[in-house]
Amino acid sequence: MDIDIFDAIAAKQNLIVTYQNVSWDPLLAGMAQGLYDAAISSITITEDRKKDMLFSDPYFSAGQLITVRKDNTTITGIANLKGTVAVQLGTTGDIEVQKIAAATSKPYDDIGLAFQDLMNGQVDAVVCDNPVALQYVAKNPDKLKTVGDVFTNESYGIAVPKGKIDLLNRINDGLAEIKAAGVITQASAKWLK
After folding, report:
1. Residues 174, 184 contacting (CB under 8 angstroms)
2. Backbone Cα Rg of the chain
3. Cα dist. 19→6, 41, 68, 85, 187 in Å?
4. Nearest partner of 150 among 44, 19, 39, 23, judged by Cα
5. Three-state DSSP class for 17?
6. 144 near 72, Cβ under 8 Å?
7. Domains of the chain: which residue ranges?
8. Taking the CB of the first residue and of the last residue of the chain, which one, N or C, has fewer CB atoms within 10 A?
9. Burial per residue of 26-65, b for 16 or more beta-carbon CB atoms within 10 angstroms, e otherwise
10. Would you write out the chain's pLDDT as a tens digit for each of its 193 residues?
């Protein structure tokens, strides 16, 4: 979804884009160091991250959601989340789980591995952004389910290194155009089934 969105922005603003697939922690560190011109990867806009990089206007609203195995009847939401909870290292999900006394955060570099361990019974739950959770449940409906409601309110933004105000303005202008044209709604419908 993020690639479709950024491709549409690039087309509106005549930006030439070369994508690099980068793991989560090196992505944020690289943005803080100015190694990349921009990053779009379901990055939640936070005050802490704003210290290291600039953000576009929000393009998507998300939040944290709990996923458990289909046969789990003990975890029904945030109020009784306990045990070993898989998260992606350095994400807002990781931060939120660390606040829960009855839960032990188990960080993963790749959220896909966290879901694999959940299905194999090696962790009790996964906490991650709701679009990601829903996608894994849709692919594994006989093994996984989400429980409770989305328990945070987060907005995704496109990250830009500090000092690249001109690029940020072009991204925001393109983002406004594609929002008005319904591109984000179309991308959401395509990718978040």
Report:
1. no
2. 17
3. 10, 11, 33, 31, 18
4. 44
5. coil
6. no
7. 2-60+155-191, 64-147
8. C
9. ebbebbeeeebebbbbbbbbeeebeeebbbbeebbebbbb
10. 999 999 999 999 999 999 999 988 899 999 999 999 999 999 999 999 999 999 999 999 999 999 999 999 999 999 999 999 999 998 999 999 999 999 999 999 999 999 999 999 999 999 999 999 999 999 999 999 999 999 999 999 999 999 999 999 999 999 999 999 999 999 988 887 6
Same fold, 2-60+155-191 and 64-147: yes
CATH of domain 64-147: 3.40.190.10
Per CATH, which fold does 2-60+155-191 belong to? D-Maltodextrin-Binding Protein; domain 2 (3.40.190)
| Neighbour count for residue 101 (Cβ, 10 Å) | 7
Q: Are 23 and 2 in contact (CB under 8 A)?
A: no
CB 132 within 8 A of CB 192: no
Question: In the block, which residue shows the tokens 């458990």?
Answer: 68
Which residue stretches of 99-182 are H helix?
A: 111-119, 130-139, 165-180
